[in-house]
Amino acid sequence: DTEVTQTPKHLVMGMTNKKSLKCEQHMGHRAMYWYKQKAKKPPELMFVYSYEKLSINESVPSRFSPECPNSSLLNLHLHALQPEDSALYLCASSQDGRFNTEAFFGQGTRLTVV
Amino acid sequence: GNSVTQMEGPVTLSEEAFLTINCTYTATGYPSLFWYVQYPGEGLQLLLKATKADDKGSNKGFEATYRKETTSFHLEKGSVQVSDSAVYFCALSVDTGFQKLVFGTGTRLLVSP
After folding, report:
1. I need a labelling partner for B49 at 20 to 30 A (CA). Which of A28, B59, B92, B99 fits?
2. Of B43, B96, B99, the CB nearest to A108
3. Does A59 touch chain B (CB under 8 A)?
4. What is the pLDDT of residues A62-114, one digit of tens each?
5. A55-64 long-range contacts, Cβ below 8 Å, gap at least 24?
């Protein structure tokens, strides 16, 4: 199993809503990532978890709150988002956090904030 | 800082044509280099990688060679297929303790029959 599974695939939420994105992998990977990809742009790193600890936060606004409940799961909690936060949110995992290892990406959650 | 520059797209080719997508990089330290492919409506898949100078990554007929002297990692394929139509991202990662992929802007490839 070399899959990273993200749910939901699509999400529409209002600016006052609270929602969560979920990501799961069963490859035994110990590093997990959230990336944000705006339309026709490259992905940009948001967070890195290594061994279930938050290791990198790329100055992401607090309306995005990551959580890693265990080594297989990664959540992204969303609250009070803005329309400009509409994007494709990609989860990825790698065997460990080393810079030269392969990252496996999920298909993403396409988020629309109205 | 670290950055990746890719050629502007779209690149439009006929089936069986030769493909080159240029990629150059700037990095502090000694980066690992990657090509990722994104098919419509999907996430990213690693196409190939190289971790040191003169390494050649290859997969599914695609190749790229890590050229330290020219700071380049150009993607090539001898004969493209319609199914290769996608967006191709060149990326680097340097050793800062954790993996942080820095992507180029992506190059859209359109292959017609």
Report:
1. A28
2. B43
3. no
4. 999 999 999 899 999 999 999 999 999 999 999 987 877 889 999 999 999 99
5. A55/A97, A55/B97, A55/B98, A56/B98, A56/B100
